[in-house]
Amino acid sequence: MSPRRQVTYSRRPNHAARSAHARGDRMFRTYDTSYIQPKRSNVPHYVFLAVLALLGIGILWFVGSSVASCVSPKVELLAEGQQATITVNEGASANTVGSALVDAKLVGSSKEFTERVKDLDAGFDLKPGTYTFAGGATVDDIIAALRNGPVSDAVLTIPEGYRLTEIASAVESATSGRISADSFKQAASDASVYAGDYGFLKSAGTNSLEGFLFPKTYDVAADATADSLIRVMLTQFQTETAGLDWSYPESQGLSVYDTVNLASIVEKESSGDETVRAQVAAVFYNRLTTKGEPSNGYLQSDATTAYEVGHDPSADEVHANSPYSTYTNAGLPPTPICSPSIECLQAVCSPNKDALGKYYFFYFQNDKYTFSETYDEHKAAFS
Q1: CA angle 368, 373, 375 (to 5 degrees)
Q2: Do residues 151 and 242 make contact, with C-beta atoms less than 8 angstroms apart?
Q3: What is the rounded distance in angstroms from the CA atom of residue 191 to the CA atom of residue 337?
Q4: 251: phi > 0 → left, psi -120 to 50 → alpha, else beta; which?
Q5: C-alpha triplet 330, 331, 332: angle, nearest 5°
Q6: Which residues in the chain come in under a pLDDT of 50?
Q7: Do the beta carbons of residue 218 and residue 210 sit within 8 Å?
Q8: 372 backbone dihedrals φ, ψ, rounded to 5°
Q9: The predicted structure's pLDDT at residue 263
Q10: Beta strands in 135-280 (DSSP E)
Q11: With 0-12 CB in 10 A as exposed, 13-18 as middle and 19+ as buried, what is 272?
């Protein structure tokens, strides 16, 4: 029997033992969850930052609004005892009316007015017309007045084609003499007085407002003056002509004043037919811009002389050497000869293209217009 082999155990484990130990250690750590540190979630951290950012934005907005309200100038409203007049046009929105009230210093802000209109469900109840309000009137008082409609002393009707003298007489009649024809004509005698508020009058110079007092039916307030009525009519002109394209008359060297002047002649020389108005406008453009025959720049309109003499002129009168004779003076007359309709203004802004450069004459008889290219054709039309 062989002697038993003596085995000596080292205090240090050999490489295999260490490896096993290491593997066992790894296995031990894998299953013993007490050695694993839980991973912290980032979600609460992001939520906290988002809330903090929103809070900061809110604080900044509040501070900014407060500062803005402190530094914004306070609107100075109309004092009690003072009055302001505004005009509400047909179809005007509450916001537009609110802006007019702000301009008149009757309310502090358009928003204040529109919000109250919304609260009262009065958006579709604001009636067009001219209103006079006293300083100190509340927003509710103003809205109530606008819902009831303008309080008028009389109704003033200005037909299309009326001259300034006729408009003045109509004003005197409508106001039972409270506004005399003379005082109205005097107030309307210088367009430059109103040019600062109505830019379309800049080219009118110091001429009268002939041609710009828009033909329409107006409510005349009990406290209306010549000046306030004129402003209502000028505002109406501004509103009615806002959509016109003035580029064609401008291309022909005409100012707004010249365009109104030409439209006033078309008003007196044409019928109510849209095609006829546009053709008549073309004839006058042809006459006005032709330097040689057949027109040589002469409009040859009897209506301009009629304006001057006050009646249908005779042959001698239209050929007389007078300022408004467009037979003896080339070009436009010194001023418009009436208040033209929006349709005649449109015709001058957009004349008949087929007639431009073609027709130089027209003849009217029995509600029929005949347009001619030559004078011989023109004479044959009425012979």
Answers
A1: 90
A2: no
A3: 15
A4: alpha
A5: 130
A6: 1-39, 63, 66-73
A7: no
A8: -130, 155
A9: 98
A10: 152-157, 217-221
A11: exposed
CB–CB of 101/142 below 8 Å? Answer: yes
User: Which pair of tokens denotes residue 318?
Assistant: 């239209």
Q: What are the percentages of helix, strand and coil residues in the chain, rounded to 5?
A: 50, 10, 45
For 272-327, list the strands marked E by DSSP.
none
Q: Which pLDDT score, from 0 to 100, does residue 9 have?
A: 41
The packing angle between helices 274-289 and 256-269, to 10°, is 120
Return all residues near 310 (Cβ < 8 A) that are at least 6 apart: none
Measured at the CA of 176, the angle between CA 171 and CA 182, to 5 degrees, comes to: 50
Q: What is the pLDDT of residue 25?
A: 44
Task: Indicate the residue type of 170.
Answer: A
Residue 8 Cα distances to 11, 120, 332, angstroms: 10, 108, 137
Q: Could you tell me which residues are beta bridge partners of residue 85?
A: 132
| pTM (predicted TM-score) | 0.67
Through-space distance between the first and last CA atoms of the chain, rounded to whole angstroms? 167
Q: Which of 211, 104, 221 is nearest to 155 (CA)?
A: 221
pLDDT per residue over 90-147, tens digit each?
A: 889 999 999 999 999 999 999 999 999 999 999 899 998 878 888 899 999 999 999 9
The beta strands (E) that lie in the chain are given as 83-88, 129-134, 152-157, 217-221, 361-365, 368-372
What dihedral do alpha carbons 164, 159, 240, 180 form, nearest 10°?
40
Handedness of CA 290, 293, 296, 299 (dihedral sign): negative
Structure tokens at 216: 């329409």
| Residue whose tokens read 């109505």 | 198
Tokens representing residue 205 in the block: 């110079």
User: What per-residue confidence (pLDDT) applies to 80?
Assistant: 84
One-letter amino acid of 243: G
Closest CA to 361 of 337, 382, 335, 331: 382
- Burial state string for 320-344 with b = 16 or more CB within 10 A and e = fewer than 16: bebebbbbebeebbebbbbbbbbbb
Burial of 363 (0-12, 13-18, 19+ CB in 10 A): middle
Buried b / exposed e along 227-243 (16+ C-beta atoms within 10 A)? bbbbbbbbbbbbebbee
Query: How far apart, in whole angstroms, are the C-alpha atoms of residue 186 and residue 171?
Result: 13
